[in-house]
Design goal:
The protein is α+β, with helices and mostly antiparallel strands and 326 residues long. It folds into 2 domains: 43-186, no CATH class; 198-324. It contains 6 helices and 19 strands. It has helices spanning 2-33, 35-41, 88-99, 176-179, 242-253, 311-317, and strands at 42-43, 54-61, 64-71, 74-79, 82-85, 102-103, 106-108, 131-137, 141-151, 157-162, 168-172, 201-207, 215-223, 227-232, 259-260, 270-276, 281-290, 296-300, 306-309. The strands form 3 sheets. The protein has a 9-stranded antiparallel sheet. It has an 8-stranded antiparallel sheet with strand order 14-13-12-16-17-18-19-15.
């Protein structure tokens, strides 16, 4: 009799355990498959509808602070009263990362965890352990104030929190590429940002630094049946290598500086004048002074900025005429 009761009890216990397991599985599946919950976990920190309103970004990172302002729909880097050209694509990429909808799991709502995760709301390095991005629009109103904390053990995700909020999330690290770099990484340091094509350059007048007698002119030369080539004016018997001239022109038109410089000296030492097919010209002027690394200052026509060229880029631009000969 006792053996029969025991068997019935075991069967009921097994059935009850099976029911509990089934209910637990149904509950888990309801959490995973519920579309409302899925939508609730996927969100963007910055509403994409607000992107057109954004006109200022403040980026506080371990390398310093970058302030970007939008002027006439063009982003500029603000340094006090000065404003420098900014990389438009880089700014837009950061805004896209902030407004991209993705899964950001909620990790904790404990305010005590913020400091250990690098989510302190300071704007100075001494106050802050992580980074901070503030996007403003209109009358300086914050559209987003995002804290970016330390990364996980694998370096793939970072902890994220809105300033003033309790919730701490984690997500794929798309942000420290922008916040951890030096402020100068936002500078657009291209000498020619207007995208001039090599084919529109008809003539180049070069005066080498330090020796005004070392001046020469490369002129595009067209002959019937042979297409377009180049000559050195006044020395037509010397035939330049057209591919080498075109390659040099690309290096001039695509040249990038290391930094922006202060006021240029009064005396010009060398120049490159590019004469275009529409009758306009672009002039690069260089000056005697160099720094300890051999970098040189250059200026451009119609540009208020002074550029600092590395020695390598500078030497690639100011070539002697013999370089172009076959």
């Amino acid at each position: 009799m006792k053996k029969g009761v025991s068997m019935v009890y075991k069967k009921k216990a097994a059935l009850l355990s099976l029911l509990v397991a089934i209910l637990a599985l149904v509950y888990i599946l309801s959490l995973v498959l519920d579309p409302e919950r899925q939508r609730g976990r996927a969100f963007a920190f910055l509403d994409g509808k607000l992107l057109d309103l954004a006109d200022r970004m403040e980026i506080y990172g371990p390398g310093g602070t970058a302030i970007l302002n939008r002027r006439n729909n063009v982003w500029v880097f603000s340094a006090g009263a000065l404003e420098y050209p900014a990389k438009q694509g880089r700014v837009n990429d950061l805004l896209f990362a902030l407004s991209r909808k993705d899964l950001y799991p909620l990790r904790t709502a404990s305010t005590g965890a913020r400091e250990s995760l690098g989510l302190v709301e300071g704007s100075s390095v001494s106050e802050r352990r992580g980074s901070r991005v503030i996007v403003r629009g209109g009358a300086g109103l914050p559209l987003l104030d995002l804290l970016i904390g330390r990364g996980d053990a694998l370096g793939r995700e970072v902890y994220l929190a809105r300033a003033g909020g309790k919730e701490i999330y984690s997500g794929e690290d798309r942000f420290t590429l922008y916040t951890d770099s030096a402020p100068q990484s936002w500078y657009d340091l291209r000498l020619f940002s207007e995208g001039i094509n090599v084919t529109v350059v008809q003539q180049a007048d070069i005066t080498l630094p330090g020796n005004e007698t070392k001046s020469y002119t490369l002129r595009r030369h067209r002959t019937e049946g042979s297409g377009s080539g180049w000559i050195i004016a006044g020395n037509e018997s010397a035939a330049p290598d057209s591919l080498r001239v075109d390659s040099w022109l690309r290096s001039v038109l695509e040249a990038e500086a290391d930094d922006f410089g202060a006021e240029a000296p009064a005396s010009v030492e060398g120049s490159i004048t590019l004469r275009l097919g529409d009758g306009t010209s672009r002039v690069i002027q260089t000056y005697p002074e160099t720094d300890e690394e051999g970098r040189r200052l250059v200026t451009l026509t119609d540009s208020p900025f002074v550029y600092v060229l590395s020695e390598r880029v500078f030497m690639r631009l100011f070539r002697e005429s013999g370089y172009f000969l076959k």
